[in-house]
Amino acid sequence: MKIKLDENIPLRLASRLRALNHDVHTAGDEGLSGARDAEIWGAVQSDGSFFITQDLDFSDTRKFAPGSHCGILLVRLQNPSRQALIDRIGSLFHSENVETWSRCFVVTTERKVRVRRPGR
Length: 120
Fold this sequence. Notes:
With 120 residues, the protein is of the alpha/beta class. Helices cover 27% and strands 20% of the residues.
């Protein structure tokens, strides 16, 4: 899976996901640190990546409707320490069939995963 990590996701996650054979790029890798959301979203769209973020600006499913992009994972942890983010996202990529999340809008908390699929 081709993945782009927003700058609010720990860099150490990139190597963990690469070890699972994902093609992972970070906002920082691409010179997008500090970039506006529209610029980051444009890069995500142009390279066809699944996007992982904590940024609530990407939470509006009317604007980011399932099927209109390659997929978004919005991470909503109560205590989003770097280690908690790495552990939660890493665990999802081990336990879930994330390939089925293509073109979906996915939200995860510590306990739940909600997947909105295109057309629903």
